[in-house]
Design goal:
- The complex is a heterodimer of chains A (about 325) and B (about 90).
- Chain A contains 11 helices and 11 strands.
- By secondary structure, chain A is an alpha/beta fold.
- In chain A, α6 (about 160-170) links the parallel β5 (about 130-135) and β6.
- The longest helix of chain A has about 40 residues, at about 5-40.
- The termini of chain A are far apart.
- Helices cover about 30% and strands about 25% of the residues of chain B.
- In chain B, a hairpin with a 2-residue loop joins β3 and β4.
- The chains are: A alpha/beta (about 325), B alpha+beta (about 90).
- Chains A and B meet through α5, β8, β9, α9 and α10 of A and α1 and β4 of B.
Amino acid sequence: MSSPIYSVTLNYIIISVTVVKVFLVESNTANKDIRRYIAESAESHLASDGKTYFLISLRTTSSISNSQKISAKEVEITALKQGIVPRRYLRNMGTIGLVGQIKLLQATVAVVGAGGLGGTIIELLARQGVGHLIIIDDDRFTEQNLNRQIMSSEENLGEYKVTVAAKRVGEINSATTVTTFRERLTRENAQRLLGGAQVAADGLDNLPSRLEVEQACCQLSIPYIYAAIAGFGGQLMTIFPEDVGLSSLYGPPSNTMPEQGIEAEIGNPPATVAMIAALQVQEVVKIITGVGTPVRNQILLVDAREYAIDRIQLGR
Amino acid sequence: MALITVRFYSLWRSYLGTDSTTLQADHISGALTQLEEKFGHRLREKLETAGIHLDGKIQDYSFILLNGIALRNLKSTDLKGGDVLHIFPPAIGG
C-alpha cells in the first residue's frame, strides 16, 4: 500500500500533465486559428521589384490581435513565418527579407539617451520594426533641445524624454514594446538597465557615460554602437566585447579625459544628428539581421561640410 | 629621419585646406612640433574666424593616432618610414 503522501504527489503529477496537455492542444488549435485567419486575410501584391508578395494590413493585424488576445508583434511574426508580410514592412523586404524582419521583431535594443541621437534612433528603430526597445534617460525636454531632438516639440517642453519617446513609439508601431528607465545610467545600474538587450545604441552626450555603457556592454557580451557629433561632422564605431573600443581613441581611463569635445564650440545641428543616428540604426539592423558588415575596429568619420567619409583602422 | 604621412580629417581638413602632408622626423614630439609650426597658426586663425576660441596647440584639442593607435597607448613614440599620423577633432555631442 502506498503512503498518502506518494498518492497525493502522483495525483498532482497526473493532473499537472493533463493540464499541460490540454493547454498545448488548445494552444496548437489557437495557433492554427491565428495562422488561418492571417492566411485568409492576406492579399497578393505585385511589388515594383516584379515580385509578388502576400500582405496583411495594419487593420487586419490589429483585428487578429484583438480577437485572439495576442500582441500585434506575435501576429506579425506569425504572418512572416508563413511568408506573409505585414504591409508596413513591405519596403524593408528588399534589404533584410522575411527572416531579417522576424529577427528584428524578436530583438531587444537598448537606446541609452533619448535626446538628439537617441531620439532619432528610437524613431527609426520603431519604423524598422524592432520588437522591443529599452529607453534610458533621466532628463526632460528644454528649449535648446528643439533644434535637433526629434521627439521634442513646443508642447512637450518640460516632459520627461522617456515618457515622450514611449508615446511616440506607440504611435508609430503598435508591435514595438517599450521599457523605459527614467534614470541616468551609472556604473552601478548599467547592467540592470541594459539586461536583456541584444545591442545597445549610444544616444549620449558625454564621455564618462559612454565609457560606462561600453564597460557594461562588454560585461553583458553585447555590441555597443558608439557615435558622437560636432558641427557638420560625426563619428561612429561598433564595439563588440573583443574589439579595441573607446580606449583606442582616448587611451586608458584617466582623470584627464575630456567631458566635451569641439561641439561645445561649434554646436549640434539637426541634420548632423539625423545623419549619424541613421548610420547607428543601420549598424543595429546589420548586427541583428546578419546583413552587411558593421564598422568594427575602425572609426568612421563623416563630414557633411565637404562630404568626406573616412575610415581609420584602429589598433591597441 | 623617417618620412611619415600626416592625414587630417573632418573639420581640421576643411580648416587646414589640405587632407595630408608629409614630414621627416624620428620621434612623435618632433613631428608634432613641425605640424604646429606649419599649421598651428592657420588652424587657430580659422577657429577664431568661426567664433571658436580654443587656446593651445593642435595636439591639445585633437585625437592623434599613430598607425591607428592613440598616442597614449603607444609603447614607443619613435617613428619609422611609412608611419601615418591621423589627426581629427574630438566630437562628444549627441
